[in-house]
Amino acid sequence: MKQYLIDEIRPHDYEKIKGYLDQTFGEPGIDGLYWVPVAKTALSEVQKAHTACAPFFVALELAPDCLAGELLVRTHRRVRCDCIHYADERQRNWIVRTMDAIFEKLEIIT
After folding, report:
1. pTM
2. Between the CA of residue 64 and those of 10, 36, 40, 83, 103, what are the distances in Å?
3. Cα 76 to chain center, whole Å?
4. Ranges of the chain with pLDDT below 50
5. Phi/psi of residue 77, each to 5°?
């Protein structure tokens, strides 16, 4: 799996990140796995056309020492579809900016 990883998270920063993710995206269904809706402006043309598959998400996995963002854009409605694919350049940038913004908002330096 391709991913963007921020590691070496300190224990007190982990708690801040977890609190933010819980409040913003809801309690994780699977331990530490959060579903982040992809901004409509970041969707590919195929994803925009697949309105029946929307909404689209990326997964953020929080562990005690790291936050990993999967670079796969997916839907909960289907397991296989042309609209489920690895992030293109614009989407990768959106994922990285989204994760970095969490750290900036929480004033966490990595």
Report:
1. 0.90
2. 8, 19, 31, 32, 15
3. 14
4. none
5. -85, -25
